[in-house]
């Protein structure tokens, strides 16, 4: 809870929160000097995306966000910075620069006051791409994960993903016995909510973050679509995956 909430009540909290929201990311930019870190497979993959591209990595707790950042995108685990916003939202972001791109990960969902969704919306709105991570083996929470995506990411009135921003759904833990298959996740996350998703590039890829299965395929799709000289690729791939 925001520290001022106890003394000022909910209305003031909302105002304070809104007022500070735009300042939230300034410290992140200041903390991480822009420059080319050592060359890695991931930095080469994202080398051609526009400078300061923001890729939001989001999903419920335990979906695999930290594993993706630390084990697959980062040159070293300690390259991932944990950022606690200047206001006390109870949420921390993990931030990682990969070539010209910034990956920002945080846990979406849980038991939170409603104004937290404004935080979600703001993050979604500034994103140039969204990686939405879903634990395919957590059958009980797949519905919750979808509701969170719709509520903050897609249907927000003044926030949410901008038009045309690509959505990559990563279905993790496909190695586990009780995992839903990627095509089931696709039906649930894409086909059944196609009106909310709208006309944007989208893809669903099943991954095993223990072995890396599926990861480079998924990240290549994203980097290809964000790289200016291949801007037609999404249209081709999207067309071929639509049913
Ligand atoms: N078997 C299996 N385990 C996975 C996979 N992906 C992630 N895990 C495990 O799931 C657990 C949670 O992964 P994290 O990367 O910490 O998840 P997170 O989304 O960062 O979770 P929070 O920080 O709590 O929001 C870890 O023990 C991972 O090793 C996968 O594809 N297969
Ligand atoms: Mg984590």
Task: Describe the model.
A seven-stranded mixed β-sheet has the order 2-3-4-1-5-6-7, with helices on both faces. The radius of gyration is 18 Å and the shape is globular. It starts with a helix and ends with a helix. It is built from ten helices and seven strands. The chain has one domain: Rossmann fold. By secondary structure, it is of the alpha/beta class. The longest helix has 17 residues. 37% of the residues are buried. Bound molecules: guanosine-5'-triphosphate (GTP) and magnesium ion. The site of guanosine-5'-triphosphate has 17 residues, from helix 4.
Please report the total strand number as a whole number: 7
Classified by CATH, the class is Alpha Beta
Specify Rg, calculated over alpha carbons. Answer: 18 Å
Biggest beta sheet attributes? 7 strands, mixed
Tell me the number of structural domains. Answer: 1
**Fourth-level CATH superfamily:** P-loop containing nucleotide triphosphate hydrolases
Low-confidence stretches: 1-37
Distance between the termini: 44 Å
CATH structural architecture: 3-Layer(aba) Sandwich
Q: What compounds are bound to the protein? A: guanosine-5'-triphosphate, magnesium ion
What is the N-to-C order of secondary-structure elements (H for helix, E for strand)?
A: HHHEHEEEHEHEHHEHH
CATH topology, by name, is Rossmann fold
User: How does the helix and strand content classify structurally?
Assistant: alpha/beta
In DSSP terms, counting alpha (H) and pi (I) runs of 4 or more, how many helices? 10
Q: Order of strands across the widest beta sheet?
A: 2-3-4-1-5-6-7
Strand-residue fraction?
15-25%
Query: On the 0-100 scale, what is the average pLDDT?
Result: 77
Task: Please estimate the helix content.
Answer: 25-40%
The gross shape turns out to be: globular
């Amino acid at each position: 809870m925001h520290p001022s909430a106890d003394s000022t009540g909910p209305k003031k909290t909302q105002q304070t929160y809104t007022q500070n929201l735009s300042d939230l990311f300034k410290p992140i930019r200041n903390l991480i000097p822009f420059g080319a870190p050592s060359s890695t497979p991931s930095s080469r993959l994202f080398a051609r995306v526009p400078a300061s591209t923001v890729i939001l990595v989001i999903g419920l707790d335990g979906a695999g966000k930290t594993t993706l950042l630390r084990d697959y995108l980062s040159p070293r685990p300690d390259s991932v910075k944990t950022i606690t916003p200047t206001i006390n939202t109870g949420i921390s972001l993990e931030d990682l620069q990969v070539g010209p791109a910034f990956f920002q990960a945080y846990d979406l969902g849980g038991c939170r006051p409603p104004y937290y969704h404004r935080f979600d919306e703001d993050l979604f709105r500034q994103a140039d791409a969204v990686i939405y991570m879903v634990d395919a083996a957590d059958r009980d929470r797949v519905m919750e994960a979808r509701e969170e995506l719709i509520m903050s990411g897609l249907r927000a009135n003044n926030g949410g993903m901008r038009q045309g921003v690509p959505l990559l759904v990563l279905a993790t833990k496909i190695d586990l016995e009780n995992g839903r298959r990627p095509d089931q996740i696709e039906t649930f996350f894409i086909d059944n909510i196609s009106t909310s998703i709208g006309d944007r590039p989208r893809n669903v890829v099943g991954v095993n973050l223990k072995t890396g299965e599926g990861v480079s395929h998924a990240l290549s799709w994203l980097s290809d679509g964000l790289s200016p000289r291949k801007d037609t690729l999404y249209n081709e791939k999207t067309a071929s995956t639509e049913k």
